[in-house]
Design a protein that fits this description.
NTP_transf_5; transferase; transferase activity; 9 strands; alpha+beta; 19 helices; five-stranded mixed beta sheet
Length: 390
């Protein structure tokens, strides 16, 4: 039997909760209907399962699978599943419409913009804007267009809680890579990015590869398949893959899109966090049977990914709709430290986390420009409070 050991106790890959097992099986491209029926019979608390499916961002996929098992699932549960899925579909259509509107607005004002994640990823990887959950719209622009973009969105009823003082504060601005704006009337969140990767990921930020795609018959620029995959893997690893949706994104895009694997490997080699990227592949390969070239599969052993997988799966297995994560801030930091390819990079990451000014520092103390130098003195007090709290 396939066993792992973690902090003194053993874990079987099969020994996931019945809820998580069912979620994973529902989201596979090729369904095992006998296995699905057997797991469905083991579900004791359907409300818990529904909440968990929603929290993991996979509700539409789960619904589209479970609606085929009407004889095994209580009628009131099926009705609730259908109702929630309809709400998600309506929200997704609203957000897609808003994305097209905002991209057109930016284009008309000569601002080059690239849309990624959200409706674009749902259409490309899942084949339908309603099959993936998303809560915001992600748009990448050039840093020089940031002020103009904010002004345009302000005029179109989007606001931000982030003060312009912070954006004009050089120390604090360097800690940012995106800004969230919220529609006053439609409640849609837009994340305006001017850096695709955080500095710590050390990818070649000036070489933003993109391609054209269509959504609702509108041509929109998005990330190339290869860069998209790198981004999704880095993003998932940063957050310890606590949402099953992020693993499925890798599986879906690899199965639905044409991937230039040589180009992808070139992009991976630009990073000092190759382990983060290969971990995403490994999870997708292990739990969703995603096919990868032998060059990538050979890296699974090279980077000894099983220990990281154990932590990820424990996090997923104990993740519920009532708690954010099994892991505390300290444990998450320890996980992130292990993602770097060299010990020196890991040490540098810890040093930056402890001593480099962050966005959280700027927001916590809200000092004016002249007093910004005090942030480095105040930071340890914030960290002590945060780490002891967690």
């Amino acid at each position: 039997m396939y066993l792992h050991f973690f902090k003194g106790f053993k874990i079987e890959l099969e020994n996931l909760s019945d809820d998580i097992k069912l979620i994973i099986e529902c989201c596979k491209t090729e369904k095992n209907y006998t296995l699905l029926e057997n797991i469905i019979l083991q579900i004791k608390d359907w409300n818990k399962f529904i909440n968990l499916s929603y929290s993991h961002g996979v509700f539409p996929l789960v619904y589209h699978t479970l609606k085929e098992f009407q004889d095994q699932i209580p009628i009131q549960v099926l009705a609730k599943l259908k109702s929630i899925n309809l709400d998600i579909a309506k929200q997704n259509m609203l957000m897609t419409s808003e994305l097209i509107k905002v991209m057109k607005l930016l284009e008309e004002n000569y601002i080059n913009a690239i849309a990624f994640k959200g409706p674009i990823l749902s259409q490309m990887a899942y084949g339908d804007i309603t099959l993936r959950q998303y809560v915001d719209l992600d748009i990448l622009i050039d840093e020089k267009d940031l002020e103009n973009s904010i002004s345009l969105l302000n005029k179109n009823n989007y606001i931000t809680d982030l003060s312009m003082d912070m954006l004009k504060n050089k120390i604090c601005f360097k800690t940012l890579k995106d800004i969230t704006m919220i529609g006053k009337f439609n409640g849609v969140n837009i994340e305006i990015h001017w850096k695709l990767f955080e500095d710590k990921y050390n990818n070649e930020k000036n070489n933003i590869l993109h391609k054209k795609t269509f959504i609702n018959f509108k041509e929109i620029l998005t990330l190339s398949n290869e860069l998209n995959i790198v981004y999704l893997c880095l993003h998932g690893s940063k957050h310890m893959w606590e949402r099953i949706e992020w693993i499925i994104d890798i599986d879906k895009i690899c199965k639905s899109q044409t991937i230039n694997w040589n180009k992808l490997i070139e992009l991976i080699n630009l990073s000092n966090m190759k382990k983060s990227i290969y971990l995403g592949f490994y999870l997708s390969y292990t739990y969703f049977n995603t096919e990868f070239p032998k060059e990538i599969i050979s890296s699974f052993q090279e980077y000894n990914l099983k220990n990281l997988e154990i932590k990820v799966i424990n996090n997923i297995n104990y993740f519920t709709s009532n708690s954010n994560s099994l892991y505390s801030t300290r444990q998450l930091m320890n996980f992130q430290k292990d993602l770097y390819d060299s010990r020196l990079d890991s040490i540098y990451f810890i040093f930056n986390t402890l001593f480099k000014i962050s966005t959280e520092d700027c927001l916590s103390f809200n000092l004016n420009k002249k007093l910004s130098f005090l942030l480095i003195i105040l930071k340890p007090f914030r960290l002590i409070k945060k780490y002891f709290k967690n």
